[in-house]
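User: Round two. Same drill as before: sequence, then structure, for each protein.

Assistant: Same drill it is. First protein:
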Amino acid sequence: MADQSIPQARSPLDEGALSHGTAPEAGISRRLLLGTAGATGLVLGAAGGAVGYAARPAEAVPLTSLGAGEVMFHGKHQPGILQGLQARGHLVAFDLAAGAGRKEAAALMRRWSGTARRLMAGEPSAHGDTDVARDAGPSSLTITFGFGHSFFGRTGLEKQRPVALDPLPDFSSDHLDKARSNGDLWVQIGANDALVAFHALRAIQKEAGSAARVRWQMNGFNRSPGATAHPMTARNLMGQIDGTRNPKPSEPDFDARVFVPENGEPAWMANGSYAVVRRIRMLLDDWEKLSVKQQEDVIGRRKSDGAPLSGGTETTAMDLEKTDSEGNLLVPVNAHARITRPDQNGGAAMLRRPFSYHDGIDADGVPDAGLLFICWQADPLRGFVPVQRKLDRGDALSSFIRHEASGLFAVPGGAAEGEYVGQKLLEG
């Protein structure tokens, strides 16, 4: 949880920024104009399994402007990967219904894509809109679709299943609930307004009809854009600065790390990516018993400002060899930030867009809270898997987190105008 951040929506990425697009002026929907008429104007560090760095916002955005943000549905890549983190998110996995196959899956993806396009533009859904988001603009809504390993057997498309979608191996830190893991289909929903996000979740569920049923669903949140007086990296539920960097599109190898190349295999995954999804519970009672110094040694960064224990500011490069007057490493050998650094992992990097979650307090007064970890990469077998194995062998953070659910999904490239997501797979 050390070297990942929680970015907020803005436009082009620069140092430390993950978001790519949706400043408020990017587009205002008809519904927003109607709704505001007459108004007065206005990365948990890879909690247990990530590498790469997430972003901090590059500009403060007034809360009153959030509704105007609009992300385009059609494009080279699906929305929800390159944009900054949204304030509210829902993750939901579906299994195809008994008897449903390729034909039903294609019809479902066509419906879902149409619904996503409309909702992301701030329009009502085509069938039985619930009016939950009637008064709001798009609020930077993104809806992203992926296919799980089991989807290909259910649809008779085993020969099109990517090798990179092979099931993740078992890790020693896993305490996985199979009922809340994997799935035939996966949908990621994010927005900067909770009602807009829920509206999208409800519309997607309704449009599934008899073709698919919900397997599991999780809710998350991040800091709202404009919540701080000036741009700064957000904190995770452990109170730690949650990252300072993330792979940036300006880096020459960014696309190679995050997206499947246009001439890659299989062809239908061109410009797509692979999402690893992990529900990581933070053992907050145990964590909060540590002194600030002990917490900093676990992470390898100062809690106050996110600077490395080797000195400097938040963005200063970590000096892994620097010692104190007694010869002790300033950044402990098992510090999370040390283990997850790309230069300690053969350059492996993942683009992270997590959500925090809190699902209540159990009978013993223990909070069920933590991170909905989502990372994007061109090949999880070269990104997430080797880093998680290394974390298993000695990450100081592992004593304070528990991986409780897991999924791996192939997320195809964006749909062109007139197409739906996954069309090349389902009609190829």
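Second protein:
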Amino acid sequence: MRLLAAAVLVTTMPAAALNPGVALGIDLGTSGVRAAVVEKKTNGGVAVLEEASAAWSDAEGRRPEVWLSKLRETLKGCDQLAKVERVAVSGTSGSCLLVDADTGKVTRGPLMYNDAVEPSSLIDAAAPPGHCTRSATSALAKLLHWARERKLENEVICHQADYVASALASTEKPVLVSDWHNALKLGFDIDALEWPSWILERCLNADERNTLTRLRVTRPGDVCERVVSAEASEAWGLPAGVEVVGGTTDSIAAFVACATDIDKGALNVAAGDAVTSLGSTTALKLVSKTRVDDSSVGVYSHRLEDNWLVGGASNAGCRVLRDFEFTNDELEALSMGLDAAATNTKGIYPLVSTGERFPYNDASKEPVLPPRDGGDRAAVLADLLVGIADVERLGYLALKERGASPLKAVATAGGGARNPQWAAMRSNLLGVDVVRAANSDAAFGAAVLALRG
């Protein structure tokens, strides 16, 4: 585990931080692509002009040509592209591929964010304790995996968001720029803002160093001399000269969406503010004055403006509700009777299969569930919901125990955000206010990031 105090104070950025204009946000998720065109209003707020999306299957989502074809399909459904001045792209964290340095053509197809490779002894020997590159799914582990397969020749590693942003800017020559968020698991030092010597000197040979250092890394949202060419303008329907700014990961784009005050156009982030995403799994992100990294439980920190964003994700989550075959109508009706003061007296731990990663690192952890044949469906649902809420409580406690700032407020994203009775229960367990985020769409978050500059 590594703790590092931030060198700057946490700030709440005012509405004036938004630059005038219209921005396009693109999010490449696990199930498809979404786009949002966002405009800064004269009163300082932000408005969504339009949204569009296209879905892909799991198999299609592993193919770069599908990313581009589905994005083209999505943008064809947008009528406001002529107003766009900036574009930002977010993609699934840890999804990366190799391309030719001269042509940008894919030389080795993507390994996705959840693809594990054989751990590298070089990383084990060189990486700082607790560093996120020690994971078998890290981008650095994947780069060394490719190097073991065959020699790296005139190739550049890039992330999903980097690849698509380059295609938006130029259809002929690659303009490969990454960002602090995507490059974290590739080993980019987000304190010194450079590739660290422990990677360049101890993990990589000369060809492998070139594969890495050809990829420029910039601040998310920053202008980086990457603009839509005339040829790309015809291909995508965007005005020539539009700035394709530094991107981000899908989860941080969703955090930005949740943290944005739409009426004021301000990104409200102060130490202790957090976002819980209640989807199939339970993901936590907490703004902290202190950086925290502990790869043993999947905890790592991103830079977000002048703050640290500490995150962790549990395997427990709302997927268990579908496993118990609760319908949407049942969830709504039976939640009406939830006891906001309930606690997890039965020790429910709502996994759907063996194994947990956060807040415990326990591959053998077994689910603890209510009886499936119980006749009282309301009681079963209450047990499951208090169990998920308790995992959320334990998660924020685990971040605090590792040195992160204490929790002060939670905004909620994901399907579980639509349940106000559950929010009251979670607020009681967490001891802080819990609200539903006004907008949690990652494409919206990417567009806001582009507007902010």
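The first helix runs from residue 64 to 76.

User: Perfect.
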